[in-house]
Amino acid sequence: MTIAVQPNAPRGADLLAALPLAARGTPVAYLDATRRTLRALMERPDLLDGLTLERRPGGYARNLLFGGGGISVWAMVWSPGARTSVHDHHCSCCFGVWRGAIREVWFRPISESEAVATADATRPQGYVACMMPTGPNLHQIVNPGAEEAISIHVYGFDHAVHASSVHREYRVVAA
């Protein structure tokens, strides 16, 4: 198994290196290990010190921090107002809010390509969430604030095989 820790690996890279082994266990054990790892990373104010992270004014940028063993870890840098499409995942999806706050909006599919909003919540700094692709798990992430936000995402996919964790995108329709 090849583990690729990026040259600008975060200070918690030692914690991330244990995740591929956890991914070979049961889904519940993997999610528990990932949740614990993300919680530990969220408590590290120096986590991204010294790293050069890409930023996209008006949008968000994905920065690969770690990859290997069927796991990829990304730092997402969210400009104010940035948002993802409404989407679901082909793999496990866990994230923690490292800086700022993000809003997560949940959706219910009404067809193969359309969805309606069902709930939303603002996720504060330190918040951690994990889910398996038992679907449908449709959501959208938005930076509602006036300041940049950063989240750390752990996905159950090999970044060298898949370009992203997104399985399908949906168009929002009125309920």
UniProtKB/TrEMBL annotation:
It comes from Methylobacterium gregans. PANTHER family: CYSTEINE DIOXYGENASE, CYSTEINE DIOXYGENASE TYPE 1. Coiled coil: none annotated. Pfam families: CDO_I. Fe cation binds at H87, H89, H139. InterPro entries: CDO_1 (IPR010300), RmlC-like_jellyroll (IPR014710), RmlC_Cupin_sf (IPR011051). This is Cysteine dioxygenase type I. Belongs to the cysteine dioxygenase family. Keywords: Dioxygenase, Iron, Metal-binding, Oxidoreductase, Thioether bond. It comes from the Bacteria.
